[in-house]
Structure formats: C-alpha cells, structure tokens
Amino acid sequence: MTKKIAISDLIALLYGRDYAYDILRRFLIEEPAQEYLKIFLQQNLEQFPFAQDCDGILEGIEDIKIYVKKYDVLHNQNHFEQLHWDYTRMTIGPFELPVPPWESIYVQKEPMLFQSCTINVRKTYEKFGFEMAKQNVEAEDHIGLELDFIYRLNQLTLDSAKAEHLQEIDYLLRAQEQFLHEHLLKFAPEFCEKMISNAETQFYQGIAKILLHYLTMDSVVLQELLNIEVIKSEALT
C-alpha cells in the first residue's frame, strides 16, 4: 500500500528544512556575524528538526548552549572575536587549514580547487539558475555554498508545494536527494569530524555535530518522500 502525505504536512516539513539549512549555511559559508548571532540566540534550538530523535543533534545543541552561557558573543567583543577567529583559523587561514571547507580536498586524488569536482558542482548550480557573483574567486564546492544550494532548492520546493505542483515537487526533491548523495554526504562527515577535533570553541563543535547528524537524517527523509504520494488539499475535503 502506497504511503501518503497531505500537502499541508509536506509544507510543514519543508519549513523545518528551511530553518535547519538556513542556520547551517549561515555559520559555515563565512565568519559569524553578530547580527545573525543575535537572531540565532533568540531561537529555541530544541525545535531544530530531529532534535528529539537524534542524540547527535541534541549533543550539538547542548554544546552551543553551554558555550553561549559562558561566552557573551553579543556584548563582549573579545568573546566575539574568539569565535570569529575560530572559524577563520579552521577554514580560511592565513595558516595551513585544519578544516578545509571544499569538497575537492576530500574526494579528489589531487586535492586541488577548480578542477572536475568544482566544475561539476558549478554545472549543477547553473542548471537551476544559480550563479556565483564572483566565479573563480571562491570555489563552488565550498561546504557553505553547497548547503546554501540545498536551502535554495528547498525554498523552490516550498513554492511548488504551496502551488500544489506535484511534478515540480518530485523533481526538486529528487535533485536535492541526488546532490546530497553525490556531493555533501561524500565529504561532510569527514569535514565535520575535522571540525569537531580542531574547533577551539564548543560553538563550532556543536555546529559540526548538528550538521553531521542532520544531513544523514535529512537524506533518509528525502528518500522516503520520493516514495510517498502527496495528496492535494482538494482531495482531503
């Protein structure tokens, strides 16, 4: 018997993904900004998708809560700069990077940027009309950009779900499931383990733990959704 999901329930699930990927992309695409930290710290992290079903996500949330209880990154400039430096030191430089953020470094025999891996990711972005403003300045296979791509595809899926365009929903969900398996899941686990081991703040240890476990859980959800019949609202009345 084919499983079914009401369009309203699918929309609620997609909003949860929107929330999760927005947080993850913001903290991994560039150094933390106080403006977003203020918004982030006002949120109830226990509402993060799968938080009550996954010990790894809960552990990451607890790491972040312990950190922000001890360090006032909004009002103490030294605390904020320490957090800012933690991300910079790991993923930007100026020294050798303990946590390189590019897929190419993890999956290619020759760990070089702007080669086949970067080009494949760029072509996928372009297929959906996404193009980086500064092409060849930052490699498209940066983990923050890949998370941003999933975030944007999920937003398109939300728009399609609200319009009840079932074929578009299926197409966009398949694209996300494929991108997760062909790109993010091929290097994110190793990236996360490196960040957990090398981060000097519990904040980024927590972010890495959440990312590590969330991507796995989200992949399972996408696979399930692709085998579930979506029921339009008119069929529920």
Write the layout of secondary structure elements.
Layout: E1 3-6, H1 7-29, H2 34-41, H3 55-70, H4 77-91, H5 103-107, H6 116-127, H7 143-162, H8 166-198, H9 202-225, E2 228-231
Parallel strand pairs: 1-2
Helix pairs in contact: 1-7, 1-9, 3-9, 7-8, 8-9
Helical amount: 55-70%
Summarize the helix and strand pattern as letters: EHHHHHHHHHE
Major sheet, described briefly? 2 strands, parallel
Report, as a whole number of angstroms, the end-to-end distance: 22 Å
CATH superfamily: TorD-like
CATH fold category name: TorD-like
3D shape: globular
* Low-pLDDT windows of residues: none
Q: Beta-sheet strand percentage?
A: under 5%
Total count of domains? 1
Radius of gyration: 18 Å
What's the architecture, going by CATH? Orthogonal Bundle
> CATH class, anyone?
Mainly Alpha
How many individual β-strands?
Answer: 2
